[in-house]
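Olfactory receptor (Seriola lalandi dorsalis), 308 aa
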Amino acid sequence: MDDELNVTYITFGGHVEVQKYRYLYFLIIFTAYILIICFNFTIVCLIWIHENLHEPMYIFIAALLLNSVVFSTAVYPKLLIDFLSEKQITSFSTCLLQFFLCYSLSGAEFLLLSAMAYDRYVSICKPLQYPTIMRKTTVSIFLGLAWLVPFCQTAVPVILTADLKRCSLILNGILCNNSMFSLYCVISRVQSIFGIVTLIIAALFPLLFILFTYTRILIISYTSCREVRKKAAETCLPHLLVLISFSCLCAYDVIIVRLGSEFTKTARLIMTLQVILYHPLFNPIIYGLKMKEISKHLKRLFSQTKVM
């Protein structure tokens, strides 16, 4: 029975004194998960309800927030179960599924941020052409591609590595991220090259496009009137803050895997928790505070709640 268990299941080896602090861990993650759902869905519902928010920019924001909720749902419930379990284990197929969801949704986030950057570029730099370019069809295509492309890109390495021989059944982490590749005996050169190409296409190209787009907006805004500069600052700053936050956390994920042996177990746990905690909570707070129209509707919502 034990031999069967070892072959079928992978053990998460990144937990720190989980038997001692299981209820504290559970409380922190459970609270964070509830807050993520409440914060994100509040803004998504506001965008859904109010017609003046039925614009491409707000639709992309809603898609981004929904993406964060799905990402959290791929990670948090499993963590909560692990904290209350005697053994922190998972089946290999479930681990592959979590890996696939985490990285495909991360790729989708980069593409959604790219679509938002393009939307802001057209709105500020080509305002007269904006209604023609950013039609409902265009927005629907952007949304479809933002999820379809990363899903296809991530599915290939998952399929390629699914049947590889594994020399270890202990994962040096608390979730199925890039550290999964340390389980395999050998990774072929083709798979390594494909992984690098996927990283460039899914993350680096969108990041460069976003930086180029916002640089163009900055240049054009600087030479325009005060009203244009104000509009650019109000609508672009939240997107830039979210981009910086997400890029730093993606870099964090790579550092944890590549330099994991140089960190203590506690340091790796803290870094991993930062990756999964901050961003899903950060997004709705930034858009709720910094986007003028969303902030206005939030204030009305809270004032109505107080009256009731």
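Residues 135 and 141 are 10 Å apart (CA to CA). The first helix runs from residue 2 to 8. ok done for today
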